[in-house]
Predict the structure.
Amino acid sequence: MHSTSGLTTSVAWSLRTGAKYCVDGQVYTAASAIRWLTDLGLIGAAPELDEVAAADSGGVQFVPALAGLAAPWWKSEATAALVGLRLSSGRGEIVRAVLEGVAANVAELVSLVATDTGAPVQRLRVDGGLTRSKVLMQAQADLLQVPVDVYPSAHATALGAAALARLALDSSLSVQSAVGEWDPVHTYLPQWTPDRAATARAEWRAAVDRSISPSPAAEVPSE
């Protein structure tokens, strides 16, 4: 199928029975946003994210467009936005806002997948290094309003490639046998109300609009 929502269409996998396709969304800045926090000295390393993140962002919003915005905007010229800062805002609020900004970006993409497929997403399965952050995973569940299942390994993509290699080498092996059964190492359930999640996502989209179309600089009158 071809996306009508600004996502891309990619080959999901190719097996003996043929190729399967999927709609695909990309976030240019996720793990690199965490490296950015480290470079700024706001955290020492990624494992400190949950320790440093405040319980609430205090109204701070972050748009992770440090390298532009991918799907569905496709704006390479977009710039990151950190808005809502106050004198009370500290590194904890900024770290929290960065994590929630990444989660909000993913939530937008998942919602567009549901639009393309015509079926609501009931659960989100996740893997990768950032799944180690409980704060990020909870934010993902809260903003998307669905359970988030964390894969037991941070390297599901590599394991999937290995399963395909097994199928290529052993023609008697079934797909299910090659992939194997698995249970989430943790499932995060939404704690926010739907209204709170909808408000947070609307505020984040407003911040995105600002990063794409920043207000023009005020003109200084000539003497």
Q: What stands out?
A: The two ends are 60 Å apart (CA to CA).
